[in-house]
Amino acid sequence: MNPTQYQLSLSFEPVVSLVNQLPEADTLKLSQALSKNLLDSKLTHLLQCFKTDELSSFRDKPEF
Predict the structure, then answer these.
(1) What is the CA angle 36-39-40, rounded to 5?
(2) Rounded to whole angstroms, what are the CA distances from 16 to 11, 21, 22, 32?
(3) Mapping DSSP to helix (H, G, I), strand (E, B) and coil, where does residue 24 land?
(4) pLDDT of residue 47
(5) Distance between CA 52 and CA 36 in Å, rounded?
(6) Which of 1, 11, 16, 48 counts the most CB atoms within 10 A of its CB?
(7) Where are the alpha helices (DSSP H) in 1-64?
(8) Handedness of CA 52, 55, 58, 59 (dihedral sign)
(9) How far apart are CA 21 and CA 26, in angstroms?
(10) What's the pLDDT tens digit per position in 7-59?
């Protein structure tokens, strides 16, 4: 089965309304997925902030 991607233009309120109609278990899954997405995004941003040529060269050295 091929996943389908939909591009919808929704504002915050209709999304909240849809989420409020979900069963509690699905709301929890959605919350966990959003939390993971946010954490991944923040960690990626943090790593990009600290990424320099000097730090990147450490992984090329045999002792690391």
Answers:
(1) 85
(2) 9, 9, 10, 16
(3) helix
(4) 87
(5) 26
(6) 16
(7) 12-20, 24-50, 53-57
(8) negative
(9) 10
(10) 888 899 999 999 999 999 999 999 999 999 999 999 999 888 887 765 555 56
How many angstroms separate the CA atoms of 46 and 38, rounded?
A: 12
pTM exceeds 0.90, yes or no:
no
pLDDT at 8: 83
Residue among 23, 6, 46 nearest 31 (CA): 23
Q: Are 58 and 64 in contact (CB under 8 A)?
A: yes
pLDDT of 51 reads: 77
- pLDDT at residue 27 in the model: 97
What's the CA gap between 5 and 7, in Å, rounded?
7
Residue 27 has which token pair? 């709301």
